[in-house]
């Protein structure tokens, strides 16, 4: 008397190829294809859609702490040039109060968009220098004031990007307005 193992296929039901042997299933290519597709998707997501960056510096504190990680939506304003510093196609513009990512001196920079094209810029020189824009009073050094004082509004195609920690931030007050085409993403989580 033959006893079959539980779950085993009975001999009469097994299929055999033309040589009388049981066919075997290929194991390697399925896993390789799965891994390759995963890698390609991962690279495409990092280049075009989302990125996780580590923050170095205190210029955006308290909103974004030093050494914290942020999630950047690269599709917020357009299609980013792969490994580049500008948009290939733009479908939206930064809005006031967005925390944005752009490059300055070949470094990724995260700052808050405090003014967009056409926003009025008012300067005070009474007790120190300051910039009043969209109900915010932003302190300026004399050098920053001298750089910006001739601008009565944000020029077309530009934004004014400033760090939340005014005293510790190098930003538009120092190097001028940021072209919208160079804004590569919006910070979505901090």
List the helices and strands and how they pair.
Layout: H1 28-49, E1 50-54, E2 69-73, E3 78-80, E4 87-90, E5 99-104, E6 107-116, E7 122-124, E8 129-133, E9 136-140, H2 142-148, E10 158-162, H3 172-175, E11 178-179, E12 183-189
Antiparallel strand pairs: 1-2, 2-12, 3-4, 5-6, 5-12, 6-10, 7-8, 8-9, 10-11
Describe this structure in words.
There is one protein chain. With 190 residues, the protein is an alpha+beta fold. It is built from 3 helices and 12 strands. It has helices spanning 28-49, 142-148, 172-175, and strands at 50-54, 69-73, 78-80, 87-90, 99-104, 107-116, 122-124, 129-133, 136-140, 158-162, 178-179, 183-189. The strands form 3 sheets. Strands 1-2-12-5-6-10-11 form a 7-stranded antiparallel β-sheet. A hairpin with a 6-residue loop joins β3 (78-80) and β4. The longest helix has 22 residues, at 28-49. It starts with 27 loop residues before the first helix and ends with a strand.
Main attributes of the structure:
single chain, alpha+beta, 7-stranded antiparallel sheet, 3-stranded antiparallel sheet, 12 strands
Short description:
17% of the residues lie in helices and 32% in strands. It is α+β, with helices and mostly antiparallel strands.
Low-confidence stretches: none
Helix content: 10-25%
Give the percentage of residues in beta strands.
25-35%
Which structural category fits the helices and strands?
alpha+beta
Q: Work out the radius of gyration.
A: 28 Å
Main sheet, how many strands, which sense, barrel? 7 strands, antiparallel
Give a count of the beta strands, DSSP E runs of length 2 or more.
12
Overall pLDDT score = 88
Overall, the morphology is elongated
Give the count of helical stretches: 3
Question: What spatial order of strands do you see in the largest sheet?
Answer: 1-2-12-5-6-10-11
């Amino acid at each position: 008397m033959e006893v079959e193992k539980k779950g085993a296929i009975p001999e009469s039901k097994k299929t055999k190829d033309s040589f009388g042997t049981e066919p075997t299933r290929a194991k390697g290519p399925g896993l390789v294809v799965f891994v390759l597709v995963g890698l390609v998707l991962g690279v495409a997501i990092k280049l075009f859609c989302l990125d996780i960056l580590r923050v170095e510096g205190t210029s955006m504190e308290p909103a974004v702490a030093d050494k914290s990680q942020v999630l950047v939506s690269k599709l917020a304003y357009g299609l980013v040039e792969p490994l580049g510093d500008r948009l290939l196609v733009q479908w939206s513009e930064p809005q006031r109060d967005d925390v944005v990512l752009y490059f300055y001196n070949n470094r990724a920079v995260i700052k808050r968009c405090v003014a967009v094209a056409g926003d009025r810029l008012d300067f005070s020189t009474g007790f120190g220098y300051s910039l009043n824009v969209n109900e915010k009073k932003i302190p300026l050094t004399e050098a920053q004031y001298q750089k910006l004082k001739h601008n009565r509004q944000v020029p077309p195609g530009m934004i004014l990007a400033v760090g939340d920690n005014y005293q510790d931030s190098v930003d538009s007050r120092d190097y001028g307005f940021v072209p919208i085409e160079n804004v590569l993403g919006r910070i979505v989580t901090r």
